[in-house]
Amino acid sequence: MKPKVSAIIPCYNDGAYIEKAVASVLGSDVDIFELIVVDDGSDQLTKSHLNKIQTEKVKIIHQENKGVSAARNKGIAEAEGEYILLLDADDKFAPSFLGKAIQILENNADAGAVSCWYNIVENEKVIKQAKPKGGKIEDFMFTNSSMVSSLLRKKCWEDAGRFDESMLAGYEDWEFWISVTKKGWEVRIIEEYLYDYFNKPGSRNKKAAKQDLEIKAYIFKKHKDLYVGRYSDLLEYFNRALELKEREKQRLRSTIDFKLGASILRPLRFLKRIF
């Protein structure tokens, strides 16, 4: 018997992209049972695009802006499928992903989720390619080894205790995979480029990078039972992270823009000290 698949797309002001994301799901090589788009308090332009795509199979849920984790949780909670296809509103899967992912879940009881390699796209061009490795808990403790867009068992989401809705700044996908693999599930990766990630200005990943250490400290504290016996590894990890951050600061200080800004500000600071 063919498994029932529910696709979930959280959407916040992604009117320019949502129709392509929906089309990529509906164009999969396996028919889905339902597609739920959770409108997370979007603007009127996005709502007008959502009205166009609503059909018997495509359901739109509206909520006040609560963040992507709350939107995903709302959609998954409403879903009837045993398998959940997660996709961001501004990205898209290749048609063959779903069939291959279903086959992996059907043939491997320990596999809780399946993702893939992906293209990073900017201005309609592939600028980079990423090869996440997936794996078990040890593969996720110090790095995120899978993107959130994936096919997962709904039971994984239940076992993990849902997405953490307090993580509004980002990295909630990494924390989710830690929670999933902590329960004994494995994340499998299809070693093919079957997903396009569109690198937009002001993306959540870029914003999260600005609070990198603070968010990671929250994750490590939340899962301190995992890290308590690995103090030296944790110390080394943060030392390395601080070194990288310092190198980035030094690189920025050496740029022409930084030097030009400093030369302009230097006399102003001098005058401020006088007056």
TrEMBL record:
InterPro entries to which the protein is assigned, alphabetical: Glyco_trans_2-like (IPR001173), Glycosyltransf_2 (IPR050834), Nucleotide-diphossugar_trans (IPR029044)
Glycosyltransferase 2-like domain residues: 6-132
GO molecular-function terms, A-Z: transferase activity
Protein keywords: Transferase
Protein's name in the database: Glycosyltransferase
